[in-house]
Amino acid sequence: MYLHLRKYGFLFTISFLSFMGLAQENDGVTFEMKVSKEKLGVNERLRVDFTMNKDGDNFTPPDFKGFRVLMGPSQYISNSWINGKRSFSKTYTYTLAPTAQGKFTINQSTVVIGGKTYKSLPVTIEVTSAVDKPNGEKTVDDIADENLHLVAEVSKTNPYLNEAVTVVYKLYVSPAISVSQFNPVDNPKYNNFWSQDIPVTKYNTQNSTYKGKQYRSIVLKRVVLYPQKSGKLEIEPLSLDVTLEVPTNKRDFFGGRIYTQTNKVVSAGRRTLNVKALPTEGKPANFGGAVGNFEFNVTTSKAKLNASESLQAKVEVSGKGNLKLFQLPELNLPGSLEVYDPEFKENVRTTLSGMQGKVSNSYTVVPSFKGKYPIPSIDFSYFNPSTKKYVRLTSDEIMVNVIEGPSNNTSNSTIVSNNKQMVITTGDQFNFIKLNPNLTAIGLDHFLGSTRFYLWLLLPLLLIPLAILFRKKREAIAGDVVGNRIKRANKLARKYLSNAKKALGNKDAFYVALEKALHNYLKAKLKIETSEFSKDKITELLEEKQVDDTTKDAFIGLLKNCEMARYSPFSDVQMKQDYNKASEVISYLDKQL
């Protein structure tokens, strides 16, 4: 009977404890211990979090045997409402360092929540020998290398000789870091290339993908290259010194991640182009090196004219390709036409796809004799890299009809080859010379002894008093050293402020001119030299002159903007605002000084 009672009592106890455990589990309270890793090197750090979903008291940590507490406990509380439901979390965090190798157990911790005591489960940690990278933590350079990339994007890696290649330099920045400024360290020299920069007026940020990951990208530099040599040609890298903010594993009092500022030099790396030589098969004899897709025309401004009148014969090539890198074919005109050296005209713009537009030679042609003169057709050849074939274009023959003029009689003229003409030996070459001069006598109206003569004689005597007054005035002005210096400084200030207005849109030139204007204005108003010039000195002098804080701070702010502009990109809107602000500040200072 007694054994039966003990048996039933034991079963009752187990049932009661199970019921109590189920009740604690079902009351919605959780309290647990989490570790950053269960196996680490002796030189690594271990993070231990004790987390509860309801606020508790009397938290008791374990003894952390085998570890040394480096930091903690740090307490973090999260409290939020989502769809009318409250979400609460409270965490105690410790950072530990192992004291030896081996296996160590972090025992349970306790906390009192709602009058009940809750315990966490123990965790066993294995400590091994030292590892190369403690905690697998990445250094600042590691993070920068993974999240910052400068890339040279090349449109073609296997172009033909004289075919356009576009290189766009992009800076890819991961959302995990932020870039505050960047400065070029080493600009590439494009040896064996004809190059044309396409200026980047604004740094626009775009969402991009790089190696399958999301980045923000900025286009820093764009250049169009035309290789001038076949074979393997290297494009030197562009290097930047970038100032960036990198996240650390440290957190502030509110649990936010702490960032650190660092500098990193990134390079786009060398790129190699395998430039193909132009094929020899089908190459025209008159090929002049044109590569692209072109149209060719020969035109004249007149079809009919008289002798000694002039016309313009134009040889023009238009289209897309290396328009600046080949010679236009020359006209072959009859010797009886006088031809002047051609005037070269160029209307070419360079875009990311290369040069496009037109180039032309304009010949001035003057016929000397009556008759009809043909302008023979000429050829122009180019290589089209798209079709990989040569194209030969031929102009139409043009007939020039000289209606009126002397006849081309070889007995009365001498014709010189190479388009040079002619000495015409007719009898009326000099009819245009006037032989009657129509001269008239001077008469008796002589200057000597006249009234005008005596007035000019006495004029120097009348000017002597004026010269004396003018000299005294100049000496007085020259003696006013301070006044002269102020006038010069005011003049320079107006000059440089005007230069700043003209340079709006050009960041470097604008802020250099603005800073000079501010310097010279202060030299004029406060009588200070450049050697005394500093923001602290300016602040002190403006306070002595009882300038109000708003005007003083605005002036100092402009000087700071001039300094920052050397290292950071500034927009056109910012430059316009700084210019207007400078005008207002100088106006306010004039009133107060």
UniProtKB/TrEMBL annotation:
Pfam families for the chain: BatD (PF13584)
InterPro entries (UniProt xref): BatD
Membrane-spanning intervals of the chain: 453-470
The UniProt record lists the keyword Transmembrane: yes
Keyword vocabulary terms for this entry: Membrane, Signal, Transmembrane, Transmembrane helix
Keyword Transferase on entry: no
Signal peptide start-end: 1-23
PANTHER family given in the database record: BATD (PTHR40940:SF2), PROTEIN BATD-RELATED (PTHR40940)
Protein name: Protein BatD
Organism: Costertonia aggregata
